[in-house]
Amino acid sequence: MSAAPDFDGLVAALRGADDLSSVLGTIMPPGRWRHSDAASRLAAELAAQYRYPAADVARRAALLHDVGRTLTTSALAAIVDWRGWPPDEDERAVGPGLMHGPAGAAVAAAVGLAGEGAAAIRYHVTGRADLSLLDKIIMAADAAEETRRYPWAATARRALQESLDLAVAFWITLKAEQVRAAGRKLHPRASQTLASLGSRIAAEARRLVTPFL
Ligand SMILES: [Fe+2]
Ligand SMILES: [Fe+2]
Question: With a threshold of 0.85, does the pTM exceed it?
Fold first, then answer.
């Protein structure tokens, strides 16, 4: 299929697949595919470690968490049926950087990953107040998977060794600071996510992020 499928084409390709990986590996650019594949392995490990009962849901949600990134801005704008996961106005205003969360959830729901799995994809960019265990697993796997090569990657992995909550707080704080540095408005859910993790975790995350600002 083409490198830039529309929503229906993406859903059709994934629905017809015996195995999501074989299709995603051909649709995604190599770096993003390696990221998604590594995130799915880490998510499965975290599911076992934190006793999330549906390891396969965790694995598939991580595999699909960035599938919305394969849709162009015009393909995102053309989505009519969001399968229950529409973007909000702030996400629409920012574009693919935030829209790929809801778009990925819509794709996941259309290919049979509904409920918590789709929600974890929906909220993986900003988090939300009252994160589910699966939300945390997907966000931590996104931040700390082994192919990440950014200067902060080792710190993300260290945070995850300490706790799932610290890894999530580190990830949200890092992204929030990047948004602020770019002069953009932070999505309100990102602040709600940090607040929901508690002031001690938020302060520790802030300390860990500071060297990378
Ligand atoms: Fe993402
Ligand atoms: Fe990601």
Answer: yes
